[in-house]
Structure to design on (143 residues):
């Protein structure tokens, strides 16, 4: 069963490391299924944010979360919290894409998504290595 206290502790840990103390970050645990190129799959976590209000909401996929070890759970929360840290820039880029001609929006929106994940994952490795003082394993987490 998902330990909500552990989730809260990890969110507070990464909130402090990433200087997100002014943000309201809510969280919930519920089954999460996303659609991908290869069909539906379960995911560990996702985040939604409103940078202008400094508000974010992290959803934890309980079943997937419970299958992760402690290191992967730490990595997952760090990754989602980095999305929050990067959200003002992401929102700005999204606004610029909305100004493009309709024929170009999808390509740039997909590119934005791929870059957002790549940057968040790279910064996750950097943060884990820095905070823990050890080399972080380079692994991708499901989104």
């Amino acid at each position: 069963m998902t330990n909500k206290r552990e989730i809260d502790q990890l969110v507070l840990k990464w909130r402090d490391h990433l200087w997100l103390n002014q943000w309201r970050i809510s969280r919930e645990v519920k089954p999460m299924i996303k659609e991908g190129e290869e069909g539906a799959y379960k995911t560990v976590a996702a985040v939604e944010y409103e940078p202008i209000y400094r508000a974010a909401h992290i959803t934890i996929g309980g079943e997937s979360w419970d299958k992760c070890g402690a290191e992967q759970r730490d990595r997952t929360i760090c990754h989602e919290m980095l999305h929050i840290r990067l959200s003002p820039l992401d929102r700005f880029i999204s606004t610029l894409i909305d100004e493009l001609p309709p024929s170009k929006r999808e390509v740039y929106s997909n590119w934005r998504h791929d870059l957002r994940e790549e940057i968040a994952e790279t910064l996750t490795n950097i943060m884990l290595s820095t905070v823990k003082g050890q080399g972080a394993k380079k692994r991708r987490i499901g989104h």
